[in-house]
Amino acid sequence: MLRWGIIGTGFISHAMLGAIAKSKGSVATAIAGRNEAALADMQAQYQIPLGYADTADLLASDDVDVVYIALPNHLHADATAAALAAGKPVLCEKSLTVSMTDAETLAQAVHSSDLFFAEGLMYLAHPLMAQFMSLMRDPTFGELRSVSGFYAADIWQVVNPAGGGTLYNLGCYPASLLHLVVQTMCGDTAFGARTMAAQGTINPDGNVQDTSLSVRFDNGVFATLQSSDSHGMAFGFEVITTKGALRFDTNPWLPDAGDSRMIWRPFDGPERAIVVNDANDAFYHQTRMVERALTSRATETQRPSPRLSDSLEIMQFLTDWDVAARG
């Protein structure tokens, strides 16, 4: 039984704790947070025996096998380094950090520890993404020509402004899925060979709030992405190949229990739905992914979940987008 320590008492911890409770291979044994009321409520709701106001006390506990870091983005590097230094494997929420300097500090801590680390892009652990990768590898799917994606949600007033704004809270989803597509269909080096142009608006906190991005990869593939945390709740992602177009009919970044759907529209035939039915959500599958990795004594995940090298490439993309969007 894998014993989890949770760092952070925000809304995302509820999703992960629900997944841990559902898995037969995991149990939450400890949680740390500065908000005493939230800490007590979460201990009671999820029957977590140990609660700490100081993260260092959780990291020192012999009752914790692995740590889930659910803190704002700008705190990820220091929290990850502290957990690894305490000998605890880490699952850290996305985005990796809010700067490449912090990302490199985090990466150095991971490399020095020889312990498991994964960025919590939970949707990549869902069976929907394994099916998507299988489709992309099928020769009948064609060669990649272009990708478009967007994600919007009205959250800017409820997230920590130090967390970097829409790109690091929402844009990381279409960016990471674009990364998976280009890597899978064009090879390991294709994603980094690119030129980018972006526009953006800045919110009162000084963060990019609404932004659009155009990318031309050196192999001739094009991509357009948009991200906004100022309005609505909307998503979209489509891949165009030499054989047809595939779009996600359900939210690819929040696959829930039940049916997830993709629509394939070949250029020379009728469209068809590709349905992935699963009884569990992405957070459950992320939990199971960590269980498998630690059971096998792996230090990183397997694709489609992100390896550290993938997370660093995605982080570089986000920081480049951020700079371009600010003009």
Which fold does the CATH topology of the largest domain refer to? Answer: Dihydrodipicolinate Reductase, domain 2
Shape type: globular
Cα distance, first to last residue?
A: 50 Å
Domain module count: 2
Low-confidence stretches: none
List the helices and strands and how they pair.
Layout: E1 2-7, H1 11-22, E2 26-32, H2 36-46, E3 50-52, H3 55-59, E4 66-69, H4 76-85, E5 90-93, H5 100-113, E6 117-120, H6 127-137, E7 144-153, H7 166-186, E8 194-202, E9 208-217, E10 222-228, E11 233-241, E12 244-248, E13 258-266, E14 272-278, H8 282-295, H9 308-325
Parallel strand pairs: 1-2, 1-4, 2-3, 4-5, 5-6, 7-10
Antiparallel strand pairs: 7-11, 8-9, 9-10, 11-12, 12-13, 13-14
Helix pairs in contact: 1-8, 4-5, 5-9, 7-9
Overview of the structural elements:
It is a single chain. The protein is α/β, with parallel strands linked by helices. It folds into two domains: 2-122, NAD(P)-binding Rossmann-like Domain (Rossmann fold); 124-284 and 311-325, Dihydrodipicolinate Reductase, domain 2 (2-Layer Sandwich). 35% of the residues lie in helices and 29% in strands. It has helices at 11-22, 36-46, 55-59, 76-85, 100-113, 127-137, 166-186, 282-295, 308-325; strands at residues 2-7, 26-32, 50-52, 66-69, 90-93, 117-120, 144-153, 194-202, 208-217, 222-228, 233-241, 244-248, 258-266, 272-278. The strands form two sheets. The chain has an eight-stranded mixed beta sheet, with helices on one face. A six-stranded parallel beta sheet has the order 3-2-1-4-5-6, sandwiched between helices. Strand 8 (194-202) and strand 9 (208-217) form a beta hairpin. The longest helix has 21 residues, at 166-186. The model has no long low-confidence stretch (mean pLDDT 97).
